[in-house]
Amino acid sequence: AQSVTQLGSHVSVSEGALVLLRCNYSSSVPPYLFWYVQYPNQGLQLLLKYTSAATLVKGINGFEAEFKKSETSFHLTKPSAHMSDAAEYFCAVSDPDMRFGAGTRLTVKP
Amino acid sequence: SAVISQKPSRDICQRGTSLTIQCQVDSQVTMMFWYRQQPGQSLTLIATANQGSEATYESGFVIDKFPISRPNLTFSTLTVSNMSPEDSSIYLCSVKQGARTEAFFGQGTRLTVV
User: Fold this and answer.
1) Which of the four pLDDT bands, split at 50, 70 and 90, describes residue A64?
2) Sign (positive/negative) of CA torsion B22, B23, B27, B32?
3) What is the structure's pLDDT at B81?
4) Which residues of B touch A101 (CB under 8 A)?
5) pLDDT tens column, B11-34
């Protein structure tokens, strides 16, 4: 079965700094990869998805992710963090049900 | 996108009792799933709810403990039976239209067992 691994359970950045959340996938075939965000006491919201059309994927709220086959990675980035970005972020692979990474909690310091 | 309504949004239950969680989707969907999110943890798939047939359970989850119904393409229920404090979690309903598509989630049901 396909799986994803998120490196770093907690990332802390200053407001305005670069956000980098890491995700590596384990798959022998091209995977369908996703990033979700979960705000406190809420369900999951889709940030972006990779379905092999383009390696650089742009999502909502200024986030983007780049699919790198050579590194089996799908890291999530945002050039400038905002306080409202503080949340839990999950990388996921479709298999065809969604399989989630352990999650990364993003803290944004003023 | 699909709009998913889950009921109840939260509940506090006595151990040994059962709770049924409802999931209503605003459109017909081919795939429905139930997840558990334990405190501070990621999402773990409980089962795939199949329309017109038995649900398919993941390892570690059994039908006697988590019976699931899916009478049509827009509705499903998950029952948490004979609850213990270890069942305290958020339970989420999720839908997909196909293997390659994104999943949409309900707001979740926050269950506390005392």
Assistant:
1) very high
2) negative
3) 98
4) 42
5) 999 999 999 999 999 999 888 999
Find out whether B40 and A40 touch, Cβ atoms under 8 Å: no
Rounded distance between C-alpha atoms, residue A66 and residue A69, angstroms: 10
Task: Kindly state the tokens that stand for A39.
Answer: 């705000």
Is B92 within 8 Å of A49 when comparing Cβ atoms?
A: no
Nearest-neighbour CA in chain A from B102: distance (Å): 7
pLDDT tops 90 at residue B107? yes
Asked whether the beta carbons of residue B42 and residue A101 sit closer than 8 angstroms, the reply is yes
Instruction: Round to whole Å and give the CA distance between A84 and A87.
Output: 8
Q: Checking phi first, is residue A104 left (phi over 0); if not, alpha (psi -120 to 50) or beta? A: beta
Residues in chain B: 114
- Cβ atoms of B45 and A99 closer than 8 Å: yes
Please count the residue pairs, one from chain A and one from chain B, whose beta carbons lie less than 8 angstroms apart: 57
Give residue ranges of B with CB < 8 Å to any A CB.
4, 31, 33, 41-43, 45, 48, 92, 94, 96, 98-108, 110
> What distance in Å separates residue A99's CA from the closest CA in chain B?
8
**pLDDT (average), residues A34-42:** 91
- Whether a cis peptide bond, with omega within 30° of 0, leads into B8 is yes
Chain A residue with minimum CA distance to B58: A97
CA nearest to A34 within chain B: B102
